[in-house]
Design goal:
- It is built from seven helices and three strands.
- By secondary structure, the chain is mainly alpha-helical.
- It folds into two domains: 46 residues; 87 residues, Arc Repressor Mutant, subunit A.
- Strands 1-3-2 form a three-stranded antiparallel β-sheet.
- A hairpin with a 7-residue loop joins strand 2 and strand 3.
- Helix 1 packs antiparallel against helix 2, helix 2 crosses helix 6 and helix 3 crosses helix 5.
- The chain starts with 9 loop residues before the first helix and ends in a 14-residue tail after the last helix.
Amino acid sequence: MANRPLPIDPLAEARRQWLAHGWTEAADGMAVVTSVMRAQQLLLARVDATLKPFRLTFARYEVLRLLAFTRTGSMPLSSIVARLQVHPTSLSSTAERLVRDGLALREPHPHDGRAALLSLTDAGRDLVSRATDALNDEVFSRPGLTSEDASDLVSIVARLRKNAGDFADPRPVPDPL
């Protein structure tokens, strides 16, 4: 990828072409999809560059960070699949690499003989702590947007995700008696 900016926005040009070809009703949707996909590429490149010295992919980082957030440092594989919204095969591959590298242990579930737990090792806890510090410093604290724009974007994308069936609003909790 070139480091210098292009003289025009290729996504705006693509939208213009959609309109010129009579695809008016699809032009905004095409612009949304291609814009979000390009933004994902840009952000992932920054994340990958930050995680490279730690020999972590973002998928491996997410699993380690999720485990580190738990009280016990362990979680059933099925719960990790649900929380990270990944395919079980992808998690299985990620878990195998974490175990191979000594960052996690795969253990039998204490109450369900069919299930397995993934547990963070001390090395995994240390690595994810250092990687989180780097991501916070190099990526998350400066995503390339103002705080207001970041908040607006998160809200907009949350609506898109909710409308796609990604999650539901939590049920209201009754007031205590």
